[in-house]
Amino acid sequence: MDVILVQILNGLDKGAAYALIALGLTLIFGTLGVVNFAHGALFMIGAFCAVTMQRFLNLSQTVIDETQTDFLGNPLKVEVPYVQSWFGEAAGAAIQDWSVPLSILLVIPVMLFVGWAMERGLIKHFYKRPHADQILVTFGLAIVIGEIIKAFYGANPIQTPMPSAFIGTIDLGTWLGMDPGAVAYPMWRMVYFFFAAAVIAAVFAFLQFTTFGMVVRAGMADRETVGMLGIDIDKRFTLMFGLAACVAGLAGMMYAPILSPHYNIGMDFLVLSFVVVVVGGMGSLPGAVLAGFVLGILQSFASMNEVKAILPGIDQIIIYLVAIIILLTRPRGLMGRKGVMEE
Predict the structure, then answer these.
(1) Most exposed residue of 25, 70, 223, 267, measured as fewest CB within 10 angstroms of its CB?
(2) What is the CA radius of gyration of the chain?
(3) What is the number of structural domains in the chain?
(4) Looking at the whole model, is its pTM more than 0.70?
């Protein structure tokens, strides 16, 4: 039971990342009808926003420390981070320690701008073009963004530590009435799952309970009719592109301590997330979230040594096998709508 529970938790962790990226992909496809293969690059930008915030908070200045001397008795020059100079040593150290969560202050404006720039500068010219053209141009954009990141940050993964308060594990076994230590799970992965759940809930609440969201959902169902009512649906869809970019950026920001950011991380998640979208059903937001968690759990169980001993390499292909089976039995995916990409 403890092994099964750990694998489910691992699956929820992976599924949360898949679901967040797939949710953004589906928002863009459902509103704009664009297959955005640059969405993984938005996840990567969010991760590197966390790296940038960490580096910014670690910027330091050289000062003379009278309390430390060399062997000749001369005061030593030491590097003191600016945040510790501004806010005091204890407060400054705490701010540096919480650099990843504080990155949200950078991620939201940056991702809104990047999403707006992508949509206005490139994507809008491909609304009425075939999906193959959209895939090619957005895939090319993802490669360009990856190379830009590589030029500025290098090709090697960059470690981005989590806050020290979340280092270690949670003893879930004790909470569930099991033997102490039977189910020990990394704290930050639990934080990531609950963060992802909160973001997903916020997106659905925004679309369901706000006037803006109601207009967007109506536009997703019948864009021409909404436009005839005098509503500038294009402007709202541009904002939705920015929102989708924010969702992907937040997913990448919080995932940075789990998987060290590198210039190709967006591509690693893009293919899997696009499979998640197809399995869930193109244009279906609930389907994207459901498929993300289901496929994450299946991949987690497939990565068990006992399973790989019987079926070597199954953890690398399980998602694609499940996708083939589902699409053969349900061509529109789990919750896909009739007519989507069927012209």
Answers:
(1) 70
(2) 23
(3) 1
(4) yes
